[in-house]
Amino acid sequence: MSERAKAAAAADEGPEIVEAADAPEIEGEREISSTELKAIAEALIFVAEDPINAKTIADVLKVDQASVSQAIESLVDEYAERPGGLQLREIAGGWQIGTRAEHHEHVRAYLKSKPSAKLSLASLETLAVIAYKQPVTVPEILEIRGVQSPSAIKTLLDKRLIVAKGRKETVGRPMMYGTSKEFLLQFGLKDLSELPSVEDFQDLAGGTGE
């Protein structure tokens, strides 16, 4: 068969069909450079309403969690080295961008200047007792404060600052209470080991809305 005949026969057979397996990968499977990954992780941490962890970021980007953790650690170092007012901190099992501790006095002064409802003194005292003595029962709170705290307990439960921690194995089996993850979020704490001194607690609690 002549070359011209071969060409005509090939044209009659139509264009070559590309198998699906040979098609390019869909978006989301591409490789992400370490520089880009760090920038994306920072953006996600910034826009997230709650602290976001490395696994969540890895799932969103379809990359391995170890790479995300490394990118975050690099970001933590960068924030620590730059003389800015923000820092990247691990809070309640995730990461969040917040203000530096040395600027909290000025930040609190600004927040106090804004009109907002705050915890009542009774709720604040009750929360302090629960935070430092948890798990604790209502009778134990009464013994420490010297006054009843039913409305304060309800307020703190409504705000999700405290949660029930089971019943105490004693007469009447009273309910025990402790602080919640929301408490850690509101006060910017990694865990309960970062609780401030009792003297500083009232200033920190002043910014929580009622």
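the 2nd protein, sequnce then structure:
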Amino acid sequence: MIGSKLAHYEITSHLGTGGMGEVYAATDSRLGRSVAIKCLPDAFAHDAERVARFQREARVLASLNHPNIAAIYGLEEIDGRHFLVMELVSGETLADRIARGPIPVDEVLGIAREVTEALEAAHEKGILHRDLKPANIKVTQDGKVKVLDFGLAKILVDEISGPALANSPTMVSGASVPGVILGTTAYMSPEQSRGKLLDKRTDVWAFGIVLFEMLTGRRVFSGETVTDVIGAIAHKEPDWESLPVGTPASIRRLLRRCLAKDARQRLHDIADARLEIEAATSEPAIQAPSQQVSRRVWLVASILAVSIAAAAFITSRLSNSTPDESTLWASILPPEKPFSTDRNPSPALSPNGLTLAFSAPNAAGQNLIWIRELDSPTARPLPGTEDSLESFWSPDSRSLGFFAKGKLQRIDIAGGAPQVLADAPDPRGGSWADDGTILFVPTATTVYRVPASSGNPVEVTHLDTTRHELIHGWPSFLPDSKHFLLWVFSSEKQNEGVYVGTLDSGKMRPILPLRTRAQFANGYLFFGRQGNLMAQRFDPYNLQLLGEAKRVTEGLGLSCCEFGNPAFSVSKSGNIAWWSGSPAYAHKVQPTWFGRTGHVEGTLGEPGSYSGLMSSPDSKYVATESNDLTALTTDILLLDTARGSPSRLTFVNYAGGNPVWSPDSKRVLFTQWRDYLDVAAVQGGATEQIPFPGGVNSDYPLSWSPDAQNLLLQRGTPDSRNDLWILPMSGDHKPRPYLNTSVNESSGRISPDGRWVAYVSDEFGRAEVFVQSFPIPGNKKRISAGAGPMWRKDGRELYYITEDHSLMAVAVTTGTTSIEFSSPLRLFQTTNSLSSGGAGRAAYAASADGQRFLILVPVEDDRPQGIHLIHNWKP
């Protein structure tokens, strides 16, 4: 809120929120006229990007001089407060008018014509509105139409950057509240909701929605959540039968052309809509039947249609008769809390296509597998599947295999405790054959087989070192239960792709040269390509692709662990499920400085898809993993803490991960999961290669000792889960165990004096921070429940993260052979922006004096995050 006065403007009332600012009615005492004041919120006053958008709105409005567009009188800044002075438009909004019911056709045509004239004037100047809706249209007391709020307008020639949903209209808050119909979201064009580049056809779509709502008095696309609405926009047709029978035929045609989901088939110019509306005013009106008869006919027809459709759908799905031939689209949202940022839903359809399994948090925030029968409106959790990563179905659709807590397990979906089948500390997918054989990848290396009734795992595939193969992942059985698809990752790009392997032979055959997993169903090979789900005919007996690949859907997200794992599942019945979101490592974040009390002190660099933070010992740089979601690669990026400028350190084929600084801050060691480690010089030059003959794909570099003699690693093995190992940086480079136990040890950090290691262990059933001596373990100290330990530069303070995302500090006192810790002090609490980092990554970085902390803060993401379904897909 603002005070009652801004210079010579007297505030008289609060009108509401428009675009990105609060709007007030005011009196200009100098000119003696009523005006509207639109203020940039205080929270954004120092946000350069928000201020720039606000100033852009002023320039946009100033360029639009049209009787159907609210005029701008000036852009003011007083005492650091930015605000627009605009024409105060009296009268009610179109939203208020529609709320009272349908508007008569002749009145609708008059309003629609003036709206088209306003948009036509804007489009002629190369300006999109992008947020046209009834709430942004006013009808004055004398019947004049005014289009308001070009706060999200876009100059067409300025579309030089890639698509960004951050530039799309904002969503209504409280979108997860049942029964709430979303505002702006309901007027997005399909291409706008998917974050594509926009042109004037997106305003044509929104105009069509407004026109439809004026005629019917109700929303065209509605739902309880953002995903429901966006899913309806993308896949459902408007209820054309709800249009009044008196609607002219030309207006019906116009609506269909405005609301074509494919922008190429949509009306290209709003001026054409104006011509259609003007022509419609000369058409004779159609006499409507009596209200009583039309309502009765509509009610009987609706009940009959729904009954027939439901009976046909359920009968075809649950009986052995011929299935329903129609293709249906739907979306499923998380049942109790939003999908977790560090556990992706990983949808898995049962072979019979009747049931969907996916991961999601319960009301307490604990992630586990949920089961949703597709003919049921609700999902139910499976107790015993907490902390699961991915799941896959048994051939009879009665059981699930899944990975959780370092184990491959199975569980009957009807209920009961899970059964542990094998160790799997770093899994990469599984598949269940008709004969009871399960294929799985336990340690991000090769494929193993194990009986579904349990037994000893047997290795099925072997890495070909001559081809620099590193991972055989996500096996998927073909119909003969002997051959299977798998994704082969190699450091040599020409050797990676989708292959076919066999149970009785180590030989593999290349099928598709893409970075993706694949699944076969109904004569098609399904796979991901450039964010699209593709399907191509495939002969599973001759192992040959046929014809050309067809796009099934766009906006395909990623699931856990690798870029090669797009989030989709296909059933034998022709149903498809996919997730449109992305894993935590692919989310856009902004590196942000926080003080010790949790107040924001600035940002570092630009927002991006970053994972982990590691500060150099001299505090001049912060290294992070930077993900390119187009090229599907990860490189090391350096952020200059003084200037904030980023510089790219590596240019790898697939993924460079877990950057670790040398003690002198001149080099960065990282892994590409090969038989050597890479060390890149900060100032440029050739990349050094450290031999690592005993390395495995589950090795993650963690910390370089101050004397430069040893590197601390995190290693996952089937026998002992996650452990800490030491790699000598000279001599034979043969790694040796540091902490090699039956429990998990992870996230180890060597102290600045090189005498201690802080790490995380679950030996008492939960993640806790411990400290032991280094390089020989001993004198173990238990600190507290938490994760992500990090030393201050002088070693006199140790930081860690609690389960509720609080950053804690412990004072450290060291003696000749001893170390003592004070009681933990809570510095501040954040949201999910502060987590353990995962896979040995540091989740935050501390300044040298421990007075500031750099944290990756998520940037608002408007992409739909639901699981989407296609019933009975056909090419």
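The chain has five domains: 5-87, 92-280, 296-328, 353-581, 585-858. The longest strand covers residues 544-554.
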